[in-house]
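Give me the fold.
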Amino acid sequence: MPVFVEAGLWGLLAGGMLLVGAVIAWLVHVPQKVVAGVMAFGAGVLISALAFDLVDEAERGGGLVPTVVGLVAGAAVYVGANVLLARRGARHRKRSGGQQPSEEQQSGSGTAIAVGALLDGVPESVVLGLSLLGGGGVSGSVLAAIAISNLPEGLSSSAGMKRSGRSAAYVFGVWGGIALASGLAGLLGALLLDGASPQVVAVITAVAAGAILAMIADTMIPEAVETEHLLTGLLTALGFIAAFAISRA
């Protein structure tokens, strides 16, 4: 199987966990404290994968300067795009409570939330595709981190969408589309960067890592702290430890 096809399938699998979370949120009432706790755990998992896999690999492959440049660029682009989307109604797109506005409350918020979900999901799949370029197969720790974090993301955001009165067609359409886009992002990441210099791969990896780190701080941790503030730190640490153990297994 061509590497880029494999990358696309792994991206689709990881993105598909968002859809799984959406189905759970739509069919089952999950207490907000449980959602927030899983979100905190997922944030810790992603932070560990960033520290011990993505950023470390980028620095070893391309050097410190390209890695730092990529991290700053990725975080800056994400935050800039997130600010614009927040003004159009997507500020609370990962919240499970009643913070998300309905279309009646803010026209265009549905589109903004969908675009915001895409903004959150694509960088993760790009790094999955890049992890295959070394010839050693997909990074198990990165795949596990993305899959574990995507489940509570889809669950929390979909619970909020349901509370704001959005239809099942909208909710499943958004997450189904994001899953497909994640597969495409993984495919393109491997296809377009196959044979690229280590410095270029390092910059792209670091850009994605910077965007993911900004996403954790801007959207995942706030949801966890708001509802599960007493245990957020512990659950995040447990997620970090779990991902670290996977990467060293």
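Helices lie at 3-27, 32-62, 64-90, 109-131, 140-163, 168-193, 198-228, 232-248.
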